[in-house]
Amino acid sequence: MTDAVAAAFAALESHKRSIEATSLQALFNAEPKRFERLSMKLGPILMDYSKTRVTAKTIRLLTDLARAGDLEAKRDAMFAGERINRSENRAVLHVALRNLSGTPMLVDGRDVMPAVAAERERCAAFADALRSGALRGATGKRFSTIVNIGIGGSDLGPAMAALALTPYAKRGLGVRFVSNVDGAHMADTLKGLDPARTLFIISSKTFTTVETMTNATTARAWVAQALGEPAVGHHFAAVSTNLAAVTAFGIPEQSMFRFWDWVGGRYSVWSAIGLALMIAIGPRNFQAFLAGAERVDQHFRTAPLTRNMPVIMGLIGLWHRNVWGHASHAVLPYDQRLARFPAHLQQLDMESLGKSVTLAGDPVPRATGPVIWGEPGTNGQHAFFQLLHQGTDVVPCDFLIAASPHERGRKHHDLLIANCLAQSQALMRGRTLEEATALARDKGMSAKEAAALAPHRVFAGNRPSTTFLYRKLDPATLGMLVALYEHKVFVMAAVLGINAFDQWGVELGKELATELEPVVAGRVHAIDGLDGSTAGLVAALRKLRL
Ligand code: F6P
Fold first, then answer.
1. What is the maximum span of the chain, computed from C-alpha positions, in angstroms?
2. Model ipTM?
């Protein structure tokens, strides 16, 4: 971390001390136009961050921080195809996948756009053929179910988006997602499916991920057993960067779709990894999804820092995590179809920012990523919101809500919106001891009873939240939302000087699992080399196993 960044953080820390005693409510009282100043619109999305504890000076200091962190130059380096993922020596160019204008984007001096467009065309032709019934299974039946087999970025993005865009999905064509190596996931997914009408898409950047390859092998056996070995090629497609491994699996070239090492797994939904989604919603809607992201990319590239939505999101993220010390961040979509959005953001944010060293390999002197979590409202209100309101930790929240639903009738949606707005209001306003006491007295309690109960009904308030209000959850809006969070993460990583695009932290567990598998399976009996706890668990397992 440079001295300039350290100094900018120090300035923010001293500023925080100067505003700490001022409540959010007081900030609103002092400035009637606070909402106008601290909200911004980008197309169909309005972001209101007036309920975060920022002032004009905070924003000024945060943009100083962005400049100290060389944010704009780092952003431009990404768009220029430089190898900014240094520990893997790779460019980071998922933005090329939604560059629908086709303007050249270079990696090592070569324009990647022709290959990107050609692969997208191939996916669209495949999706159209399948949707129209021109592409059929080995027995001549139309496909009725697509099963995507993948994990992490090869699952979360398309699974999240397929659920989010359910109203745009083709009727009579189901899309399912299998990720977990737990055989229950595959078994439950295959239940009721007709092998003759099922197409599997094996999605794996590396085509070596043990969960995906294990599930793929099980699915292959399921097809071969029902329809015979020659049918396999008709019932499998694959998306990967490892075409040799795809061929070895027995998938023909016409059902093989590629992407490139400059697309990180958690940023890959825009590539052929989105094939299952494209089949579900059709190539045109998929194009709209890309167009939404492209719109955000253009904005991120060109808007001034103070009017740049993902930049503000990232800077507020740093303000909360690094200056206020809030260690977790809740994403609360008031949109049932965004149920998997927090899970997608979990990988995006936590795999990207979960780092302890800088790009140069030195310890990061500050906290990096927060814990990201969340569930749709209003369900969460009846589960974990208690802690958000009265717990001892402050958890900044993002609320997401559509102005209009896809369903007819406004009764449900009016209630949904009212709840969403009420929650951010309650987090901000809180309730004082005097108010809680008066409330109890109004209900007829004695002064003693009221005094005993009131502390339990106090809300500290001053709890920050940001609200994203969008017209409707359509493909373009979803594309925008995902891209906004992608760039938010970029901003945080750029300022902290860490690599947002590697994920070495997943390696050790994978290696140890590979070593343990023969011990668990009983092919290796000796357990004396294991640590005491693991050895004890293996010994107990051996006794307990049926
Ligand atoms: O969990 C690590 C990881 O490499 C993710 O980054 C990635 O999205 C996932 O595994 C799946 O990898 P692959 O697409 O190569 O199967």
1. 82
2. 0.98
